[in-house]
Amino acid sequence: MTFVNGAEASSLAGYDIDVVHELSRLWHAKAVITTMEFEGMFPSLAASRCDMVISGVMRQAGREKNYDAVPYLASSMVIIARSGTPPITSLDALSGKTIAVEAGTSYAALVEKENDRLRIAGRPPILLQLYPTEDQVIQQVLIGRVDALISQDVEVYFRQKQLGGKVSIILKPDNPDFRDFAIYIRKNAQERALLEQAIAELTQNGTLETLAKKWGISGKQAQIFNDRSTSSVFNVAVFFSALTSWAFVKGAALTLIVALAAHFTAILISIPIALKLNGPRSPLRMLLSAYVAVFRGAPTLLQLLFIWNALPQFLPIFRESWFTPFLATWLSLSINESAYQVEINRAALQAVDPGQLLAGNALGMKTSQAYRHIIFPQALRIALPPTINEFISLLKTTSLASVISLQELLAVTQIQVARTFEFTEYYSAALVYYLGMVFLFLFLQKRIERRFAWADRNKATANGH
C-alpha cells in the first residue's frame, strides 16, 4: 500500500500513494506526503499535523467515533503461515499457538476477544507478539519464531514478489471491521462529502481498479502462492551494496549530527544546573532536582513521542511545518541527555577540593576566574570519560527517532528491509556503521584521556617518584 521504492526515503510508491496523486489531480492541489510509524498517524491527524491518513488503515466503528472514514478499497483479513502449514477453519484453531501482529492495529483486540472465548471454553489462549512494522511481523514467521500472523489479503498478494512462496494463507475469517480500507480525516461534513465524491468518481471511471491491477492487489488477480524457494544464504553482494550506498551514508551522517547537536546542547544546559545543585538549598534547587529526576525517570521514547505528538495539542505553534522530526529529536534528546549530564558534571565539580576555590579567591581571583582557570579544568578531566560514554549511548539512542519518521541510520535500514526482506544483510551493514562510529569515539576518548593525564595527581606523584 505504501513503501519506499529505492534507496531514497523520499521515493515513495504503492497503491495509496497513487490514490493520493489521483485525488490531487481531481482537486488541482499539491499533496505533501509525510511518513511515520503507524501508531503516530492518528495522533498527528488529531494534532492537525496532517489533514488525511491513508496508509492501509481499516474502516472500523471505533475509529469513526473520532474521525470521518471514507472507504476506497475492499479487503479481507487473512491468517498467514509458512508454506506447507495446513489450512484452518476458524481462529480458535490457533489456541495455544503464537501469532504476530503489527503494533497499533486492531488485530490485537480481535485476538483478545477470541482469547476470552477460549478461556470460557477451558482452552489455552492464543499467544500474541506485537511488532512495530508489518515487515517485522512477517520476519517472525519466516524465521519460525511464531506460528502465524494476521494481516490483510492485499499485503500478501503483493508480498509474494518478495517472499518467494515462503508463506501461504491458511484462513480468511469474515469480520465486518476488516472489510474495507478507508481514508481518515478530522470530523467535517463538507470535507467528507468532497472526499466521498472524489472516491466515487475514481471508482466509476475505473481508476481505482486499474491501480489495484497495477500493484497486483485486485481481488480478480488474487494469486496462488507458489512453492518457489529462495536462497536464505547471506548475500554478500547485497551487504556491500548497502554498506556503500548513499542512503546509508546519509543515514549515518544524520545519526551523528543529531547525537552531536543534542549532546552539545545538553552540556550547555547541564553546567549551570550542576553548579546550582551544588549550591545552598533553595526553591530553585528543588525545582532543578525535580527536573533531573523526571527526565531521568521517563523513558526516552515516551519523551520523544510526547514532544512530537502531544506538544502540538497544547501549543499549536508546534503544528507548523518548521517543527520537523529533526528539531523534535534534537529537543527531546537534548532535554533527556541534559538530566544525565547534570549528574556527571555535578559529581565532577564535587570531586575538586573546595579549598582550591578559596585559594583562588585568596590570590585575588574572582569566583568566575577561579572556576575558569582552576575548578573547570580539573572537573573536565574527571567528567570526560563518563561524558564520552554517555555520548556513545546517546549515539545509539538516536535510533528511536525512526518512530517519528526521522531518516537516520536505523530508519533507512528498516526501509530497505521492508522493501527486500533481506534483513540479515541490511542489519549487518547498519551494525558496521554503528560500530565504526562508536570505535571512532572510543579512540578519541583514549587520546583525550592521555592528553589530560598530566592533571591526574596519582600519575603525577608516580612520575615524581
From TrEMBL:
Q: Which residues form the ABC transmembrane type-1 domain?
A: 252-444
Q: Which GO terms describe its cellular component?
A: ATP-binding cassette (ABC) transporter complex
Listed transmembrane segments:
232-249, 255-275, 287-311, 426-444
Q: Which UniProt keywords apply?
A: Amino-acid transport, Cell membrane, Membrane, Plasmid, Transmembrane, Transmembrane helix, Transport
Statement: the UniProt record of this protein carries the keyword Membrane:
yes
Q: Which family does it belong to?
A: Belongs to the binding-protein-dependent transport system permease family. HisMQ subfamily.
Task: Write down what this protein is called.
Answer: Transporter
Q: Which organism is it from?
A: Kozakia baliensis
**Native organism taxonomy:** Bacteria, Pseudomonadati, Pseudomonadota, Alphaproteobacteria, Acetobacterales
